[in-house]
Amino acid sequence: MGNEAKEIIVVAHCLMNKPSRILGFNAPILDLTSANVRCKNIIQLPCPEMIYFGINRREITKDQLDHPNYRRFCRELFKPFADMIEQFADVGMRIKIIGVPKSPSCGAEVTTIGGEGGCVTDFKHEHIAGAGVFFEEIEEELVRRSVLIELEDLK
Ligand code: SF4
Fold first, then answer.
1. Cβ–Cβ under 8 Å, residues 16 and 101
2. How many CB atoms lie within 10 A of CB 124?
3. Measured distance CA(5)–CA(3) in Å, rounded
4. Is 49 in the pocket of ligand 1 (CB under 6 A)?
């Protein structure tokens, strides 16, 4: 295998498909021509929020997503991908997972919390260090399978 063939980049869905995002969510897009990505092997993860809530969903924070059913959904959604990633790792490939900064689901290094429950007109939120719910489940599943990974947000 050549050097590029020894690494798999696993990317959050909307880094390669912006229409899956809620309107107004401003986050970077993967530049397929950049030296870091060009000629790399890429696995595109599914978008958990679009599948769970639909395309017309509204903005949401991590604390609102952090409940058993959404976590279970994320775990199940990721399992077939974990099966692939585990096998690539077993044949010696390096696994790098790239998240979306500030996402409550797919943030790898920074996520968003806040938003009181109930009838509110003013939706307050803040950005904190830490992963979103989907990425926490991804990391937990791969650690459980002893798969070595690098995790980072797209810069
Ligand atoms: S859930 Fe993840 S993939 Fe979907 S829009 Fe949000 S950050 Fe992107």
1. no
2. 9
3. 5
4. yes
Q: Establish whether residue 100 lines the binding site of ligand 1, counting it when its CB lies within 6 angstroms of any ligand atom.
A: yes
pLDDT tens digits, one per residue of 90-103: 999 999 999 999 99
* Residue 61: domain span: 4-153
Q: Is the CB of 13 under 6 A from ligand 1?
A: yes
- Tally of domains in the chain: 1
CA distances from 132 to 36, 37, 91, 106, 109 (A): 24, 23, 29, 5, 8
Between helix 133-144 and helix 68-90 the angle, nearest 10°, is 40
At residue 148, what are phi and psi to the nearest 5 degrees?
-80, 130
Full-prediction pTM beyond 0.85? yes
Residue ID of nearest Cα to ligand 1 atom 1: 49
